[in-house]
Task: structure prediction
Amino acid sequence: MNISQAVKMAIQSVTSNKMRSFLTMLGIIIGVAAVIIMVSIVQATTARIKAQMENMGTNMISVTLTGRNSTRNLDINDMQKLVADNPDYFICVAPTITGNPRIKVGTVNESTNLIGSNQHYSSIHNATVEFGRFISEQDCITRRKVVVIGKYIQNHYFPGEDPIGQILKVSNQVFTVVGVLEAKTSTIAQGSQDDRIIIPYTTAQRLLRNAIIRTYSFQAVSAEVSEKATDKLEELLLKLLRNENAYRVMNQAEMLENVETMTETMSLMLGGIAGISLLVGGIGIMNIMLVSVTERTREIGIRKAIGARRRSIMTQFLIESIVVSCLGGIIGILLGIVGTYLVGRAINLEAVATAGVMILSAGFSITIGVFFGWYPANKASKLDPIDALRFE
Amino acid sequence: MIRIENMYKIYNMGDNEVRALDGVSLHIGANEFVSIVGPSGSGKSTLMNMIGCLDTPTEGKYYIDGTEVSQMRDDQLAEIRNRKVGFIFQSYNLLGRLTVLENVELPLIYAGLAKNERRHLAKEALKKVGLEGREHHRPNQLSGGQQQRVAIARALVNKPSLILADEPTGALDSKTGEEIMQMLREIHQEGNTVVLITHDKEIAKNAKRMISIHDGKIFSDCEVKYA
Result:
């Protein structure tokens, strides 16, 4: 007896009792769909978090002084010396001063986010200039009143006109627009990353009457050295400030890694929980196959009497359970694809079931078919033909 | 054809042992029509299981077409049953989920024949038992006599050395039963060896030779004289 014959027989047997076959499959269907949906959603979430973090900058390490009334200060020269002394670790450093001033063009007058920094801010924080130019070193040295604006500012304050060279009042001081940043968000809304202006940090110090720079961001040479670079930075900070609690260092590469480990764990955990439902589905298949073997004892007896070998009976029942679990697997995959799409849409996430997880769960369901079909099939194949024929 | 030498089948039921077959020796030649009769509990079913290669004896030897079967394992026995024995049961034992044609094809599937050949042989066998045009019916759509004829077609399809009929008329009315017996006689006349197992001596008289069995022993073995 060949396999195609056995598959035909199995399909015949599965379709002859559709309701029972469907209920048997249900466990596998739910299990496979759950695995696909869970893993896909976690993958999509991870991808989104990573994209957001990469949006923050590239290989960024940032230092923030803690304690509002701390009199300790970090001198920009010390920071620049650190970069210059360790070219293997650092590319550049940008100081960051933030404020929340009101800005005014004509009659439009609202508050926005202000960042005071230097020419390196652009590359460290992925703040690309769409047109015009970014702040230059010269701007910082001479405390020029120039400003680079976010997309929202352009759309809101200069609709339909070229903002370059225009006047923008920041806290009633006159600034000249020199550049516009590329949009960071798709919505370009008020209060978003596109609602901001960047001015030279020296100008900002004077404008905000705040001489202390509380935040510096460094760019590490690569993600690989960022940990060593962080160590180097912390060493210097401890020497300068003599207090571990006076500052906080954030390493972007490390954070990315943390997110990855976390989501990987989550993926495994959720996948595992869904996997348990697959296991339960498999036990359901075994249960029904055992019932089926008992029900069909007489059939097995007849088949044996007319010459079926153990292997033929074994193959027949094994293939039957594989057909049930595969069919369940296929329906589960389809349900998983649809489910992933629907759940993704519900939580506003672009989630797609990947081929990898589909192949994995399909393979899993075949394995379940073989594993849980084995025992009943073996039991069937070992029935004694005389007893089986006598069975009522 | 069939040779049984000093065969014993002993079951141990707790303390007392049951000798279902107690030193049976028997020879059935090719193209014989033999009936085996005996009351229930006489060991006739056990003997049938032995002849049909469904069971192996505790002791003794069994040859079919010169091959010793008594020491064979399960799968070897299955192959012998498939090639050399055609079973006809009292309760037909057709598979209800399969069509008539598929039922008749079944032994050929296990013999490993290709589909076209199977179809051809199965149709031929059905024609022989007069069930042309019923190929795609299910067994439960047929009368008892027709079902038994399907079973006969299934027994014949593999061209076995031996047709083994176990109470083939037991579930049929006497008229249909007579039709079935007529068919068995024809099968015998075509050159097949037929062994008929029954408890009914009238039915047994269809055969040319009657073997009576009692308490696991052969009680008598004689030619049947036609009335």
